[in-house]
């Protein structure tokens, strides 16, 4: 491919970035301005024009999906297979490094990655062994503490807990947790990055090797790097590499996980003569969508400030739908998608974005009901499902008996008579003698500390694992997987459970065999064996390459996982105060800006049509909430919006422009309607206190009354749920 075609399809600013002389560079620009496109073309440019070897390039993206897309795009531009080129996520690349240099990283060759669920289980066990009350020391707090410290590059020895008992205890938990991970050969997500960074610091010969190799480092979505990721890049780059970062301060949405927008400023200071290029033309969205998004983000303080414009036409207005409840919302969304589909649109062009994973269930039901295919990214992904983790737990133990997280998971699943008391003895022995759980069992059995049924049960379990290990040693991966599912008793256990859920679990287990069958060994992991590679793949890429990736399906995902993507039609669901912005963000003032950036990310995913919906009452997390529309909706200028239902004349309590409900009243002659209330009735609500009925609509199950509460303003309530008392 010649030079000019590499610059085809780029505007002047983009060309300037793609064709810049070798140097450090920051491309700072808003959503949809072609940052990722520039990064991809730059890689091609380096190879084709600057004659740089693919071997000298390292590119970091935010998700595995984005990495695969980038590899594909580069391959398309360059026209050859990029095979072993280092394109991946921070975690993926750091993992690759640790696998290659496990000895230098002080890890056993069979080390395994644990996800946050496994990490939490381990922590629970440690809290118990320390006799710390879970109420006073919630395991999640300890988890946040440990991951937070690791993200800052801190080991226990670097931390001074001063004289604060809580911090001292957390530090102690961190220490013990790390020791047991090290014994068991387990590495959590934060640890992957920390160790990869330590590898640079502790092994200068390795650092020099990689510094000489990677002359070009490119990072997408730079605004979401955390301290350790930044440090890793900075050390690797040294004084000689050319680093190109692209990012958008308005799309920084992982502050809660330690990402630091300041890294953008830091970069300009740390990397000499870095040139800044700004892109200002948006190629993704219609003018209405772009301008509405710009208006929302304009409410944030301390922005670096970027102007975005588009040549695109205004397009359709943004449709805002006020639903009765979450079911109504789901129905609405599904019906719009169904219409689109009937008119010939493809399902995969539609995305539903939500703030919380828990929102997906109702949407899933609506899709099932309508018979439309959907796919969920994030949330409970395939490799995170209970039955899959059970089966993988056995495979992990076969791979490495000392894997404590796997041991905990499957020792008594299916139930084999190993009680909590026995396990407590195993755990405390492990802790006391600094052993893994497996080693503790061996010792307890040898020393005959355990007797009778307990000893038999533990022995039986250990024999099972050992014999599975021997028997499957020569099998190919998928036969082994199938064998493990049978021999472990998992299949029988779920078969005995019956019901749809159990059936789905068996189907998933079968799917795991399929996944094992289609697993392709990555070239760079050839040395570690198929089983080990498969287990790492499952832990790192959970769900991103789902089995049904080729079916045309609606895409459901959290707003966070939508970053960097684009879809012709986007629905943002549950845009309500308390859900989005989330309650937590409302309680902690500084988090509100990040929620607004998340809203900006969500809106700017849409190319042609954006729907925003909210529900007045919502059952979520097992309770019923009444909410008002999100402030973000009110931040969109009216001229870009179309309300799908005409609102009532009633003055809203919080919202300015999107009051509670339209008045479509069906009144009976006596002034009562089917709700059994009349205007003026005095009522009392368990949460909102006293109020007066001012309106009503619907009947039966769907009957609703509008009440003006003394302390809580005006609300619409479902009569069947609100349990109003008359007074
Ligand atoms: P985000 O901030 O959401 O990650 P981005 O800045 O990375 O967005 P891209 O995803 O690279 O933006 O580009 C957005 C869309 O615009 C893509 O569909 C891309 O192909 C298209 N695009 C980018 N530059 C141009 C151009 N010069 N001409 C036509 N289309 C373009
Ligand atoms: Mg991008």
TrEMBL record:
In this chain the UvrD-like helicase C-terminal domain maps to 287-564
Question: Pfam families given for it?
Answer: PcrA_UvrD_tudor (PF21196), UvrD-helicase (PF00580), UvrD_C (PF13361)
What InterPro entries has UniProt attached to this entry? DExx_box_DNA_helicase_dom_sf, DNA_helicase_ATP-dep_UvrD, DNA_helicase_UvrD-like_C, DNA_helicase_UvrD/REP, P-loop_NTPase, UvrD-like_ATP-bd
Q: Where is the UvrD-like helicase ATP-binding domain?
A: 8-286
The record's Gene Ontology biological-process terms are: DNA replication; recombinational repair
Which Enzyme Commission number(s) are listed?
A: 5.6.2.4
The family database entries (SUPFAM superfamilies) matched by this protein are listed as: P-loop containing nucleoside triphosphate hydrolases
Q: What keywords were assigned to this record?
A: ATP-binding, DNA-binding, Helicase, Hydrolase, Isomerase, Nucleotide-binding
One Gene Ontology cellular component annotation held by this UniProt entry: DNA helicase complex
Q: Which residues form the signal peptide?
A: none
- The residues the record assigns to binding ATP are 29-36
Domain of life of the source? Bacteria
Q: Which PANTHER family match?
A: ATP-DEPENDENT DNA HELICASE SRS2, UVRD / RECB / PCRA DNA HELICASE FAMILY MEMBER
Q: Which family does it belong to?
A: Belongs to the helicase family. UvrD subfamily.
Q: What is this protein called?
A: DNA 3'-5' helicase
Organism this protein belongs to? Shewanella psychromarinicola
């Amino acid at each position: 491919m010649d030079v000019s075609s590499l610059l085809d399809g780029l505007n002047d600013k983009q060309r300037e970035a793609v064709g810049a002389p070798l140097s450090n560079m920051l491309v700072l620009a808003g959503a949809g301005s072609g940052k990722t496109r520039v990064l991809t073309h730059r890689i091609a440019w380096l190879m084709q024009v600057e004659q740089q070897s693919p071997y000298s390039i390292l590119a970091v993206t935010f998700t595995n999906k984005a990495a695969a897309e980038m590899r594909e795009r580069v391959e398309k531009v360059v026209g050859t297979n990029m095979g072993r080129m280092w394109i991946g996520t921070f975690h993926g690349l750091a993992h690759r490094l640790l696998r290659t240099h496990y000895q230098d990283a002080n890890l056993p060759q069979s080390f395994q990655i644990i996800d946050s669920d496994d990490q939490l289980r381990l922590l629970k066990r440690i809290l118990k062994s320390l006799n710390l009350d879970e109420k006073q020391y919630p395991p999640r707090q300890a988890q946040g503490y440990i991951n937070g410290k690791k993200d800052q590059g801190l080991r226990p020895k670097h931390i001074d807990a001063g004289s604060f008992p809580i911090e001292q205890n957390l530090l102690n938990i961190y220490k013990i947790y790390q020791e047991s991970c090290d014994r068991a050969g387990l590495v959590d997500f934060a640890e992957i990055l920390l160790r990869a960074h330590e590898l640079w610091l502790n092994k200068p010969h390795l650092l020099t090797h990689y510094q000489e190799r990677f002359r070009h480092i490119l990072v997408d979505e730079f605004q979401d790097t955390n301290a350790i990721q930044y440090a890793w890049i900075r050390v690797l780059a040294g004084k000689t590499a050319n680093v190109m970062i692209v990012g958008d301060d308005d799309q920084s949405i992982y502050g809660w996980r330690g990402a630091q927008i300041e890294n953008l400023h830091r970069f300009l200071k740390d990397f000499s003569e870095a040139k800044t290029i700004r892109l200002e033309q948006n190629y993704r969205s219609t003018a209405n969508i772009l301008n509405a998004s710009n208006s929302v983000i304009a409410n944030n303080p301390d922005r670096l400030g970027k102007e975005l414009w588009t040549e695109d036409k205004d397009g359709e207005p943004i449709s805002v739908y006020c639903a009765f409840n979450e079911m109504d919302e789901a129905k609405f969304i599904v019906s719009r998608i169904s219409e689109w589909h009937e008119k010939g649109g493809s399902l995969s062009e539609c995305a539903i974005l939500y703030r919380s994973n828990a929102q997906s269930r109702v949407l899933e039901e609506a899709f099932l009901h309508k018979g439309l295919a959907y796919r969920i990214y994030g949330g409970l992904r395939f490799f995170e499902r209970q039955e899959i983790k059970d089966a993988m737990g056995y495979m992990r133990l076969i791979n490495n008996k000392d894997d404590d997280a796997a041991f905990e998971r499957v020792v008594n699943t299916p139930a084999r008579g190993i009680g909590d008391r026995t396990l407590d003895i195993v755990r405390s022995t492990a802790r006391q003698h600094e052993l893994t759980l497996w080693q503790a069992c061996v010792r307890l059995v040898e020393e005959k500390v355990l007797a009778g049924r307990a000893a038999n049960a533990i022995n039986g379990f250990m024999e099972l694992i050992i014999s599975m290990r021997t028997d499957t040693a020569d099998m190919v991966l998928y036969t082994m997987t199938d064998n493990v599912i049978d021999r472990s008793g998992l299949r029988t256990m779920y078969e005995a459970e019956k019901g749809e859920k159990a059936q789905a679990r068996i189907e998933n287990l079968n799917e795991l065999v399929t996944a094992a069958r289609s697993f392709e060994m990555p070239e760079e992991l050839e040395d570690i064996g198929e089983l080990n590679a498969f287990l790492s793949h499952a832990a790192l890429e959970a769900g991103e390459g789902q089995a049904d990736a080729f079916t045309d399906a609606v895409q459901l995902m959290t707003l966070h996982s939508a970053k960097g993507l684009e879809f012709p039609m986007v629905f943002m669901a549950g845009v309500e105060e308390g859900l989005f912005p989330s309650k937590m963000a409302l309680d902690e003032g500084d988090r509100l800006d990040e929620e607004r950036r998340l809203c900006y990310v969500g809106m700017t995913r849409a190319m042609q049509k954006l729907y925003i919906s909210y529900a007045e009452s919502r059952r979520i997390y097992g309770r019923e909430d009444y909410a008002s529309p999100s402030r973000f909706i009110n931040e969109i200028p009216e001229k870009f919006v179309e309300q799908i239902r005409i609102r009532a004349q009633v003055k809203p309590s919080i919202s300015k422009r999107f009051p509670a409900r339209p008045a479509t009243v069906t009144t009976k002659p006596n002034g009562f309607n089917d709700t059994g209330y009349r205007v003026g009735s005095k009522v009392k609500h368990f949460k909102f206190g006293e109020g007066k009925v001012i309106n009503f609509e619907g009947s039966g199950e769907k009957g609703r009354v509008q009440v003006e509460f003394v302390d809580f303003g005006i609300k619409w309530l479902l009569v069947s749920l609100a349990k109003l008392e008359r007074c």
